[in-house]
Amino acid sequence: MGPMSESTPMADPVEEGHRVVEAARDAGLTVRLIGGTAIRHHSETARVEPFDREYRDVDFVGVREDRKAVIDLMTDLGYEENVQINKMHRYRLEFYDETNERKADYIIDRFEFCHAWDLRDRIGLDDPTLPIEDLLLSKLQIVEISDRDMRDSIAMLNDHPVEAGDDLERIDPEYVSDLCSDDWGLYKTITMNLDRVETHVENHEYPIDEAAVVTRIETLRSAIEERPKSIGWKLRSVIGERKQWYKKPELT
């Protein structure tokens, strides 16, 4: 453990997120930011009114091989492990920052909330955050999407073109449509929320390029609709909304 100043979490969650990622990198661990602070890193729009907001927690992504080392790292960085939660959950780690009365959550290997998808092949693609497609999907997969989550989505869509390719500052519609083509439930929620976000944009006077945001939403929606669907997707689509297509997330 280093000097006291290095082992005490910072008051600003944005700065604290970067401190943890840098400490993990120094320790040879793969840790990336997710959530609001990650979106803020990529999005200038998210840093100005009415999109700028306070962040309650800091959220990270890691891989299962590093699980024990991440627990040691976070303890060294001034966090208290939630042993009960961490024993119960395979794809989660939770820590508490007593200094700032704040949680730090880790997603391990796999995003699981209302919907789920694998992140193992994604975590190393960008730094210090997950790729922007996963950041956007993490908001659009929320069935009961809040105004705050919609504003985060709008900020990202205002700042990032929707175009295929390897450019880390562009939202790749092929990745999004590929995930949705294999999972009818994810498809249902994402398309439903793209409609909600578009309506939200049209009903508010935001300091954004509204035409560009609407075009990007339509580009994403078209890519999702046009992508050939798996047999599992087609079978599940027959049942449709008669059966619940999402999980109700645990709130702790």
CATH topology label of the largest domain: Beta Polymerase, domain 2
What is the helix/strand order?
HEHEHEHEEEEHHHHHH
Shape: globular
Q: Give me the CATH superfamily of the largest domain.
A: Beta Polymerase, domain 2
Helical content class: 40-55%
Count of helical stretches: 10
The CATH architecture of the largest domain can be named as: 2-Layer Sandwich
The radius of gyration computed from the alpha-carbon positions, rounded to a whole number of angstroms, is 18 Å
- Provide the residue-averaged pLDDT: 94
Compute the number of strand runs.
7
CATH domain class of the largest domain: Alpha Beta
> How many domains comprise the coordinates?
2
**Mind summarizing the main beta sheet?**
5 strands, mixed
Major beta sheet, strand line-up? 1-2-5-4-3
User: Which stretches are low in confidence, meaning pLDDT under 50 for 5 or more residues running?
Assistant: 1-5
Q: What is the beta-strand fraction?
A: 5-15%
Structural class: alpha+beta
Give the termini distance in whole angstroms: 29 Å
